[in-house]
Amino acid sequence: MNHSYRMIRQCETPAVSSFTKVSGILASLAVCVIVCTMTWPAVSQEQPLGMLRFMASGPIQIEIHDPEGNIVSRDVIEIAGASFQDENDEILIEIPHRILGDYLVHMNVDGSAIRLRHFDISVTDGINTTLLADYQLIVNAPHDPFVIRSSSDGYADVTAAVAEELSAAEASSSHLAWIVGGFAGLLIVSLLVLRSRKQRKR
Does the predicted TM-score (pTM) go above 0.70? Predict the structure, then answer.
């Protein structure tokens, strides 16, 4: 009896051992797949988005503010790897690795510049080029910055959209201020009327 039991155990042992090994391999593969799936998005997000190059011509100066508030101008370069070139009224600012968010293009006019002279401002990522100001007169230079929105798909000029959003927010704020002012005025008038009636009763 004991001899037969040992024979059965000896026959089962290789099969059980093989099953254990296969299970271990499958478990390891499953763990590997889960870890890769969880870490892949993070690795993808760290991939560089490419460059942005801003160009301007005419009697003007431009400076670029990135989404984190860093500046590139004639006097300051706070963005890693960025460069500024200014020669014969031609300005070139290159940012080798853009990040997600809004880049602001501030324009300053030379105080001695003739207001009827023209200027141009453009931006490119090396594939697409967008004219922000196309042969415009200095006298018509905008006071607000141009807004370039950087995304994983590229970039876009959202200056007009941002201006509309700001206008809508200001209009809403102004409307709210009028409503609050109206209620405050009505409350004051009501208090004055009540006070006047009390004085008459005395």
Answer: no
